[in-house]
C-alpha cells in the first residue's frame, strides 16, 4: 500500500510539473504573438445592407408561413433583376467613370483624456486615402468634454476633412458639451436630438490641496523648480496668491482660444452670448444657433441610403489586460480630479 501511495504521489507531482511547464510555455507564446501583432485593425461594415436586412426580417416576422414562401419567391426574382441592372449600371459607370458616392460613418465616444483620438486619426486617414468627389462623412459624437490637449487634437483631426472640402455632418444623440462641442463646431452641419445636451463653452480647473493636512501631521514637502511659473499650484505645497493669479490667467487664455476657435468654425454664431459655460437642450441649442437641425443619426443614415453607399469605418485597438483595468479605473475616478477641463 505504501508503494502505491508513493507512486501515486510521484505521478501527481510529475503531472503538476508538466502542466505548469505547459502553461508557462503557452503564456510565453501568447505574449510573443501579442507583441508581434499589429496594434489594431480597421473594421468596415456596410450599414445600408444591414438596414435593408433588418427591414426584410421585420416584414417576414409579420407574415404567415404561406405568405413568407410567396414573399421569398418574389424577393428572389426581384433580387435577380436588380443584380442584372446593377451589373449593367456598373459597366456603364466604369465606362463613364461614374461612381455612387459614399457616406462614411465614424463614431466617437469621448473619455476624459480623449484617448479615442488615436483611433479617430486612423479612421480619418483611411477615409482621406479613398475619398472622392461627392463623398461625405457622418460622425456620431457623444462626449461631455475633457482635457484641453486631447480634445484640441480631436478637433484638428476633424479639420483635416474640412481642409479637403469633404462635407462633415456631426450627429449628437445624447451629449456634446465643452470639448465635445469644440469637436462638433468643426462640422459643416450639426444635427442633435431634442433632449441632447449642447454647449458649455468654458474652461474649468479643480485641484485639491493637502498642505494643511500635512502640516498637522508634521510632514514636509519640498518642491524645487527652475522657472518662475514652472509650477503655479501644487497638490501638497503651500500655494501663493501669485501662483493662483497665474493659474487663473492660464485658464482665461485657454478660454479665449476656445471661444476664438468656435467663432471661426461657426462665424454666424453669437459667440459672446453662448460662451458663458451654460449648456442647452437640442431644441434650445437650435434657437441659439449652436446646431443646424433637430434629428438623429439613424434618420440621417436612412435618408442617405437612396443616394449613397453607407460604410461604417471603425479602427479597433488591441488592448492588453492591464490597459483594460486602467481604463476601468480611470472611468471610475474621472469625476473626482479634473485639471484644465474644457
UniProtKB/TrEMBL annotation:
Write out the transmembrane intervals: 6-28
Entry keyword annotation includes Glycoprotein? no
**Out of the domains of life, which is the source?**
Bacteria
Domain Peptidase S49 N-terminal proteobacteria spans what residues? 3-158
Q: Where is the Peptidase S49 domain?
A: 161-305
What enzyme class is recorded for this protein?
Answer: hydrolase
Q: Which CDD domains match?
A: S49_Sppa_N_C
Which coarse location class describes where this protein primarily resides? membrane
Subcellular location, record wording: Cell membrane
Q: Name one GO cellular component term.
A: plasma membrane
User: Which family does the entry's similarity section mention?
Assistant: Belongs to the peptidase S49 family.
Q: What is this protein called?
A: Probable protease SohB
- The organism named in the record is Candidatus Erwinia haradaeae
Ranked from the top, the taxonomy reads: Bacteria, Pseudomonadati, Pseudomonadota, Gammaproteobacteria, Enterobacterales
